[in-house]
Write a structure and sequence with these properties.
Two copies of one chain form a homodimer. The first copy, chain A, is an alpha/beta fold and 210 residues long. In chain A, 41% of the residues lie in helices and 12% in strands. Chain A is globular, with a radius of gyration of 22 Å.
């Protein structure tokens, strides 16, 4: 008694949904009532798809990205340059960089970044497997493409120090004024960085606008 | 090829989530990646709870609210006044009114409101079953508690006309200035309505503030 929900089945489903990140109890109720209005078959398909995903998804043994097979489609692609590794946090960043169509090398998915507050240390991430890849040879360059935050920088330095033992170039993606931004409104740290890291400008410079 | 997702299993799960109302593809991916990080057991429980809810949930045969049994806990509660029926759109409104603790009668859940734009007519709603309840006798009052919108008013008038054939009082919940609102900022339609529908003020008036 005294539960605001008229049905325990409904309440359980709302509880499950509201455990998902960013989903509050009101949104959870709205989602559950939506599913309740759908055909049983559709809800069944929804549940089965989630289960199948959780049970069958694997990770690429090389770059640790989510994959349907032991080697992901990017690592398996012979037309890509396996000697350049772009280090990212998660699958979302791989998708974002792939969307730019400016990178034809391979990736290394760390599975997060070093964050003492969240209890995530280097050993929780795929850093030693990155070192192994570099150690095995054939790697020319490692590009650090982590978040431009304190945690990202901590992770950048950690990886940089680990890789200093090997003959590999370590670079970091450019930090500067976003394309489309007006200089007046850029924050001072970003603007300062964009001046320090200025690049040569000549006829070959690619003018890109949003 | 050319799917931005590194895995078909992942993409299917994202597709399923993004079909839910208010969930875009980015949010869907975030939810799916969250589930992927959970124990298989937890994801299993999530899926099973949804399925069980969809398969086993029933509706109260009297008020048509969501229920775990043939008669919902409100209709079955002998301490409540079954001769007063509060007409609402959905289960959310029942929960909202129950939360006020100002109503001890019964409900009638229409399952929506008349909305020609969405193709919802009177026959799609539980209006004839409301008429049956009133026809069967023993009902003193029907309180209309639908949205204060064009669709809500259309439904209010439709129900009002249907019930005119019976000796039942039809009332509508008060529309006026929200508790806590400053008069200056109330919209003019609401303010005008609150003047027209003014109520007597004396010692018995309940002063409520948020």
């Amino acid at each position: 008694m005294n539960s605001p929900y008229p049905s325990a089945l409904l309440e359980n489903a709302v509880n499950e949904f509201s455990r998902l990140p960013g989903i509050g109890r009101k949104t959870a109720l709205r989602l559950v009532l939506y599913l309740l209005r759908q055909d049983e078959e559709k809800v069944c398909h929804f549940a089965e798809t989630l289960l199948k995903m959780r049970k069958e998804i694997t990770y690429c043994s090389l770059c640790h990205n989510i994959s349907d097979s032991d080697t992901c489609s990017i690592c398996a692609d012979r037309s890509r340059d396996g000697s350049v590794i772009c280090v990212v946090e998660n699958v979302q960043e791989v998708m974002a960089i792939e969307k730019t169509m400016q990178f034809r090398g391979s990736y290394h998915v760390l599975g997060g970044i070093i964050s003492p507050i969240d209890g995530i240390g280097p050993s929780d991430l795929e850093i030693s497997s990155l070192e192994e890849r570099v150690k095995a040879g054939g790697i020319r360059e490692v590009i650090l493409a982590l978040s431009a935050t304190m945690e990202g920088d901590t992770t950048n330095f950690y990886i940089y120090r680990k890789l200093q033992a090997y003959p590999v170039k370590v670079s970091i993606i450019a930090r500067g004024v976003s394309v489309g931004d007006e200089i007046e409104y850029a924050d001072e740290v970003t603007l300062g960085r964009s001046i320090l890291n200025r690049t040569p400008f000549d006829e070959s410079y690619k003018l890109v606008t949003k």
